Amino acid sequence: MITVLSGGVGAARFLQGLVQVVPQQNVTIVSNTGDDLEMFGLHVSPDIDIVIYHLASAEGGSASGGGLVNPETGWGLAADTFHTLDALARFGHDTWFSLGDRDLATHIHRTHLLRRGHTLSQATAEIARAFGLDVTILPMTDDPLRTRVETPDGLIDFQEYLVKRRARDAFRGIKLAGIQDAKPAPGVIDAITAAEGVIIAPSNPIVSIGPILALPGVRGALRQTKARVIAVSPIVGGAVIKGPAAKMMKGLRMEVSAWQIGWLYQDFLDCLVIDNADAADRARIEALGLDVVVTDTIMKGMAEKAALARRVVEAIRRKAT
Ligand code: FO1
To answer: Are 290 and 250 in contact (CB under 8 A)?
Structure first.
């Protein structure tokens, strides 16, 4: 079993490659739910849906192409329409979060299951199955936990910070509302301790991986597991391909570098996969006590995604350089 700690788009693209080289039944994904939000009374789990839409295919099996996701945005469904959102605007509803008509069906179904007493884990398993997936997708927690961003104007809900305010406010840190009562969802700790390898996906270390690591027992399980723990750096050439990770790292006075990723995970990490463009960081990362794999981490097409996944799986199976 390979377990992947996952955020949204970067992780989903990596997972498209992973399922080309490892059977889906052998992959467990632990998904960040700190980005979840409620819109129009519906429970939206962006990171879970981003992964499902990337991995699902129109034929029902796993995607060998781009999946069902909207290829332009990396979230939502390809060729979706927005009639419902437009109609809601007439009633004065907020429409800054673009929920497509077919995407809404996912949120309606999830909310329906939750109202009938299903846990988020059960609802997620049911949705993944309906999309024809054989991977196991575990929300990091079934408990309500929401990432809030500290800004000079106070605490702002994560999606409001990222989407409504377009990450313009200065970033001072995050608070995880509900963390004091949250526990990892059933299966999360086992997925770390019983795995052959644990992969930290190329996701934002602060707001995507950070909330998973903050859950009680997760970091300890990563330190203690016999599995090799490997991270793929989301930093390429000292920059971030997409999203606010660089701004957030700078806001926390961190370096925007592959080394910084190794530093953040050094207490549990065995190996860091970095891009060729960051090869100069190798010695500094090794000085943290980590193995380093230097390769092409830019996932342009399916061939590059599969090649990266193959390198990571090789590094799990034998000590690689
Ligand atoms: N991101 C945006 O930048 N704008 C949107 O309007 C938006 C809508 C949206 C709807 C459903 C969904 O699953 C994701 C959506 N996202 C949108 C992406 C999402 O908010 C973030 O990319 C993730 O939370 C980051 O992992």
So the answer is: no
